[in-house]
Specification:
This protein is an alpha+beta fold. Helices cover 18% and strands 45% of the residues. Strands 2-3-4-1-5-8-7-6 form an eight-stranded mixed beta sheet. The protein has two domains: 1-59, Roll (2,3-Dihydroxybiphenyl 1,2-Dioxygenase, domain 1), CATH 3.10.180; 69-119, 2,3-Dihydroxybiphenyl 1,2-Dioxygenase, domain 1, CATH 3.10.180.10. The chain has helices at 15-26, 72-81, and strands spanning 5-12, 29-33, 38-42, 49-53, 62-68, 85-93, 97-103, 109-115.
């Protein structure tokens, strides 16, 4: 599959409560990145994810899937040309890669992810 789901991110109003729930529910391991105010979720086998305070507090908590692409800038432009709305343009995650966040023409949100070479 050329464009797999590679990361699933929880946007939550209460990260501490969410961490406690998911760690207890599934025995997921949480790794904190305080400088980024972000938590990596290690699920063991399969696609892992992350957790952060909901950047749009007026929205309900939600999971955001990320799809791997070879060129995040070109894929972001392609999404726009197909009628999508870009809500977060291409952004670098230092030493890891680049992402953007898209709303498709039906209103569904997803992220695009381009890993840094060798990551």
């Amino acid at each position: 599959m050329p464009n797999p789901f590679v990361h699933i991110e929880l946007h939550t109003k209460d990260p501490d409560k969410s961490k406690k729930f998911y760690a207890g529910m599934f025995d997921w391991k949480m790794e904190e990145f305080p400088a980024m105010d972000y938590t990596i979720i290690n699920v063991g086998q399969g696609t892992g994810g992350g957790m952060m305070k909901n950047p749009m507090p007026e929205d309900r908590d939600n999971w955001l899937p990320y799809i791997m692409v070879d060129d995040v800038a070109a894929s972001t432009e392609k999404a726009k040309s197909l009628g999508a709305t870009v809500v977060r343009d291409v952004t670098e995650v230092p030493d890891m890669g680049w992402f953007s966040v898209i709303i498709d023409p039906t209103g569904a949100a997803f992220g695009l992810w381009q890993p840094q070479m060798g990551k």
